[in-house]
Amino acid sequence: MSVPDYMQCAEDHQTLLVVVQPIGIVPEESFFRIYKRISAVSQVNVRDSQRVLYIRYRHHYPPENNEWGDFQTHRKVVGLITITDCSSAKDWPQTFEKFHLQKEMYGSTLYDSRLFVFGLQGEIAEQPRTDVAFYPSYDECETVEKRIEDFIESLFIVLESKRLDRATDKSGDKIPLLCVPFEKKDFVGLDTDSRHYKKRCQGRMRKHVGDLCLQAGMLQDSLVHYHMAVELLRSVNDFLWLGAALEGLCSASVIYHYPGGTGGKVGSRRAQGGSLSAEAGNRHRPGALTSNGINADTSAEIGRAKNCLSPEDIIDKYKEAISYYGKYKNAGVIELEACVKAVRVLAIQKRSMEASEFLQNAVYINLRQLSEEEKIQRYSILSELYERIGFHRKSAFFKRIAAMQCAAPSIPEPGWRACYKLLLETLPGYSLSLDPKDFSKGTHRGWAAVQMRLLHELVYASRRMGNPALCVRHLSFLLQTMLDFLSDQEKKDVTQSLESYTAKCPGTMEFITLPDGLKLPPVPFTKLPIVRSVKLLNLPTSLRPHKMKSLLGQNVSTKSPFIYSPIIAHSRGEERNKKIDFQWVQGDVCEVQLMVYNPMPFELRVENMGLLTTGVEFESLPAALSLPAESGLYPVTLVGVPQTTGQITVNGYHTSVFGVFSDCLLDNLPGVKTNGCTVEVIPALPRLQISTSLPRSAHTLQPSSGDEISTNVSVQLYNGETQQLIIKLENIGTEPLEKLEVTAKTVNTKEKLYGDFLSWKLEDTLSQFPLKPGKIATFTVNIKVKLDFSCQENLLQDLSDDGISVSGLPLSSPFRQVVKPRVETKPINPQESSKVGDFSHVKTLEAILNFKYSGGPGHVEGYYRNLSLGLHVEVEPSVFFTRVSTLPATSTRQCHLLLDVFNSTEHELTISARNNEDLILHAGECQRMAIQVDKFNFESFPESPTDGTQFANAKQLEEERQQAKGLEINSKLDICWKIISFHEYFVEGVLNQLVLEHLQLAPLQWGEFLIRLVQRLWNVECSIPTTCMPVTSFRKSPQFIRK
């Protein structure tokens, strides 16, 4: 016997072997459909008995194995079933002749045979026959199973007769010597009358009868015969048959202990009627079978338990039997099959280490020169057995050898598909899974070097199969999961191979379905590049939407009446972590920043990189980037435009690397930091862009509120100068601009402004609204600079230090005197000189114009945008009033106001007042001018120009009164200066405070007035005549002038 049956198991010793074969041309599908129905009848209850016959079907069985039927009867073909197609009566004789020829192949061992004819109808089919069954077609054969049961009963009759014939003690007859094929030549010429020869014959016959009893369902009798055979054969050192007797004893004991079988299919065998108890654990089974049928005496059960081997003894006897088989070179197949049977028993007993010893012995059993197909089968069975005992890596090792054998060079047509299929089956043994998600869960499992070798073999097998898509998928998997274990050169080689394959078949995110139904999941390149963090960015400051205050409370959730609930907070913790506290706007470009890292030793080109989103229709704008080798963390900004409103969730990103398209989900990226994934998209709003008539400023305003300024402009003005700022408002969005509000705020200045610094008329601009997309509106802002015109220190030499009288001079002709700064009055400490009094010091004013605008669907929902314009104004000094005094006039209600005016500019200017001639001042020149004015009756002013309840304290009320007085003075004096080549500018502000006390109408109670005046002045120079005359001249400190 040269062809081993690797599917053998211990319980096969009690089966009858039936061969089912086709005759002539029979469609393969039809044959196996009938074969499946026949093989379903695998056990039959014998009539009028509690025995059960077990049948083992084979559609192919080598005739040379049949010659070992006397050695072990379960190897003998006792039944033959043939299936044929016969459509006409003319073909029937030839078909029947083929049936007889087929029987002759197994004629010496057959008990009975059957022929199933399909397609033949008529007179021949109507003739009753026991060995032939006619059916019209393969679909009309309902009685197949019944005929098979009748056929098995006929086999049982023959089997029982042979058993009774061999088991009957015929002492007068000579017992024949049973031999295996290779022994026949060795027994020629032996003394058949010797005692040794007779014991050999008796021992072999006892063993043979034990086989027949086991097949006939008589387990107890078989145990008795096996024990007797062992004693007889051991006495004559008949080792080959002694091993067979021990193996039979082991098989009967296994059937007793493990009624479910050892072949791997639990429950495939039913318990024997009477011989096996339903409660196998107790093993008390009354009604044991004897040679005469049923014996209800329970003492027979005791005898059977005594003859049966224990589970431990079964393995010992298997070892002994295999050692005897090993003495014979021609018994290699028997030895191999015995090892397989022992391993299956040990697998049930969970004795893996001992089972591995049997398998190791089976590996080294030397058989004849096996064909490639037989080698594949041998290694596959070894792999299956190692898998059963839990040796997964060893199982994968032999499975891989079987796969390589499928593509051996000696095979004319290598079976690459079979090779690929077997390689796939080895993956679990090497801790490999074709799902990349399994490699993102903790540490790496398995030997990376072996896994990479196996993946390379899968790629090669896929290429030889002519399936480039599989090559790309396995190479992608190799690069994704084994990247940390690849050397720099290996990374280059793998990527070059991948690019060559993707040039023919790009990698996709689709599942690949194999012919056997296995689906290969897609492999996204989450490590090319590696993403460390994902951050959703807010819109630029000028584009961020704001909710109108009147509508803020409308979106407050009313699901719970409580402000805070720990239950709600706990259940919504995950949502809170992913929610973003800002909004995106429909139709605007939105940004997501990724921090990526290139782990490759060469430049990595990433193409078609964009965002993956759900919830809102989103137009992703792909980007392409090139990352340097081992770049470290590198910021990448991905952009897109939401097309609808609602909640949008950023689930991940997509890339194209080395020709492989990947969809990388954030849930599959371990260790990625994110500030949240979900953001609200509000309806579309217009977009406003501003441009001005002034140049851009290098000074960036930084307001205390933290707001960002989109545009900064600057301008240089003289103190008192007014200039127009023309702003062009362009709607660069897609929605109409319907609403506009403008506010101004002065920032970062300690200077006191007089009058309106910035003023405008919004009505002219709003008349151009609604502003369509692409249209431009004009907005004009007046910049008026009015700071302090007084000199804060006496840096200039007084024109008259002793209070010179100018009464002799005509008041209409001002007294002129050019002076220069007094050097000796300058402080030595430069820090003190820089504090106050620098008449050439340039002052800075900064203001922010804020444009609040809205329109379109966003305006309906109550949203608006803010756009800020920063204004940087450098104020250069123009004129200074270094001294203020008065001279009496002819009327007590008038006086002459004397002003020392200094020109601090580099230009020649003129200064004028109402009803006065112009005074020309050269650069750096100081002159005194006299103005005849009427005094003011400030007592007629109300205590407060407006309702006093509007002011927070008395200080504000006083400031309001002073401002009203200043406006009155300014309108009466109307002092202005003009540079010849420039415009005309007015003097306001602190000048009003300088002359306020000088121009006030004398009160009726002079004593009360003088007391008040002395209390407020530090240095007073005045002359009070006997008549009612006003103060002629006095000097104040600059600090008092401001009060």
TrEMBL record:
<feature type="domain" description="Trs120/TRAPPC9 TPR region">
    <location>
        <begin position="353"/>
        <end position="500"/>
    </location>
</feature>
<feature type="domain" description="Trs120/TRAPPC9 third Ig-like">
    <location>
        <begin position="888"/>
        <end position="981"/>
    </location>
</feature>
<dbReference type="Pfam" id="PF26282">
    <property type="entry name" value="Ig_TRAPPC9-Trs120_3rd"/>
</dbReference>
<dbReference type="InterPro" id="IPR058563">
    <property type="entry name" value="Trs120_TRAPPC9_N"/>
</dbReference>
<comment type="similarity">
    <text>Belongs to the NIBP family.</text>
</comment>
<dbReference type="GO" id="GO:0005802">
    <property type="term" value="C:trans-Golgi network"/>
</dbReference>
<feature type="domain" description="Trs120/TRAPPC9 first Ig-like">
    <location>
        <begin position="531"/>
        <end position="659"/>
    </location>
</feature>
<dbReference type="Pfam" id="PF26280">
    <property type="entry name" value="Ig_TRAPPC9-Trs120_2nd"/>
</dbReference>
<dbReference type="InterPro" id="IPR013935">
    <property type="entry name" value="Trs120_TRAPPC9"/>
</dbReference>
<keyword id="KW-0333">Golgi apparatus</keyword>
<dbReference type="InterPro" id="IPR058567">
    <property type="entry name" value="Ig_TRAPPC9_Trs120_3rd"/>
</dbReference>
<dbReference type="InterPro" id="IPR058565">
    <property type="entry name" value="Ig_TRAPPC9_Trs120_1st"/>
</dbReference>
<dbReference type="Pfam" id="PF26254">
    <property type="entry name" value="Ig_TRAPPC9-Trs120_1st"/>
</dbReference>
<protein>
    <submittedName>
        <fullName>Trafficking protein particle complex 9</fullName>
    </submittedName>
</protein>
<dbReference type="Pfam" id="PF26251">
    <property type="entry name" value="TPR_TRAPPC9-Trs120"/>
</dbReference>
<dbReference type="InterPro" id="IPR058564">
    <property type="entry name" value="TPR_TRAPPC9_Trs120"/>
</dbReference>
<feature type="domain" description="Trs120/TRAPPC9 N-terminal">
    <location>
        <begin position="186"/>
        <end position="259"/>
    </location>
</feature>
<dbReference type="Pfam" id="PF08626">
    <property type="entry name" value="TRAPPC9-Trs120"/>
</dbReference>
